[in-house]
Write a structure and sequence with these properties.
single chain; mainly alpha; 77% helix
C-alpha cells in the first residue's frame, strides 16, 4: 500500500502548480484549467484520507466536488465564450465590463 505522505505530496505539488498558474496567467481558459487542477488536488486529499481511515465519506465528498467542478467549468466556459464574442480576446487584464 502506498503511504499517505506520497498522496499528500502529490496533491501539494498539483495544487502548487495550479496556484502558480492561477496567479501568473492572463488567459481566462488557462485560469479555469488551473482552478480545475486545484480542485483535483483537493479530491486526491479527500480520497487518500478516506482510504487511510477506511471511511467512505471522503469519497462521497470527492464525488460532490467533481460535480461542482463540472458545473464551474461549464459556467466559466460559457462566460469566457460570451466575452470572446464581444471582445475577440480573453485577456482578463484588459477586461473591464463590470466597471462603471
Amino acid at each position: 500500500m502506498i503511504p499517505l505522505n506520497w498522496y499528500l505530496a502529490l496533491s501539494a505539488i498539483i495544487f502548487s502548480i495550479g496556484l502558480y498558474g492561477f496567479i501568473s496567467q492572463k488567459n481566462g481558459i488557462r485560469i479555469l484549467m488551473c482552478v480545475e487542477l486545484m480542485l483535483n488536488s483537493a479530491n486526491i486529499n479527500l480520497v487518500a484520507f478516506s482510504s487511510y481511515n477506511d471511511d467512505m465519506s471522503g469519497q462521497v465528498f470527492a464525488l460532490f466536488s467533481i460535480a461542482l467542478a463540472a458545473a464551474e467549468a461549464a459556467i466559466g466556459f460559457a462566460i469566457m465564450m460570451s466575452i470572446y464574442r464581444m471582445r475577440d480576446a480573453i485577456n482578463l487584464d484588459e477586461l473591464n465590463l463590470l466597471r462603471w
